[in-house]
Design goal:
Elements (H helix, E strand, L loop, with lengths): L10 E4 L6 E4 L1 E3 L14 E5 L9 E7 L6 E3 L5 E4 L1 E4 H6 L6 H12 L1
Antiparallel strand pairs: 1-2, 3-4, 4-5, 5-6, 7-8
Length: 111
């Protein structure tokens, strides 16, 4: 399919752990068409396809603050604790996280 000058190629977000791959519309902390929303991290964001409201969006993922791996927000792939961490870095540095997070992750592994 030929691309017309008015079309821009879609950028794709891909989680390097689970392989989730989907187009994203914005990367940053202040998604477009939002009034007073500032995200706590630089995120890959897309418009919510289930909502006609332009202000609604979905956060797809971000980069790990330790290894810079691109990861989705799924609990099997990443954890947000003041910053985004991929689960590989979380597991390598588990003793550096608060006891409550260590306990929650241990419960998750058991189930």
């Amino acid at each position: 399919m030929e691309q017309t000058p008015s079309e821009t190629p879609q950028k794709t977000f891909e989680c390097q752990l689970c392989g989730l791959s989907t187009p994203f519309t914005y990367y940053g902390q202040k998604p477009p068409n939002t009034r007073a929303i500032v995200l706590l991290e630089e995120c890959f964001v897309t418009k919510d396809p289930f909502c006609p409201d332009k202000e609604k969006f979905l956060v797809l993922g971000s980069t790990c603050s330790l290894c810079s791996m691109c990861v989705c927000v799924g609990s099997d792939c990443s954890l947000f604790y003041t910053k985004r961490f991929c689960m590989q870095c979380v597991n390598k540095n588990l003793d550096q996280f608060p006891h409550q997070i260590q306990t929650e992750l241990a419960k998750k592994k058991q189930s």
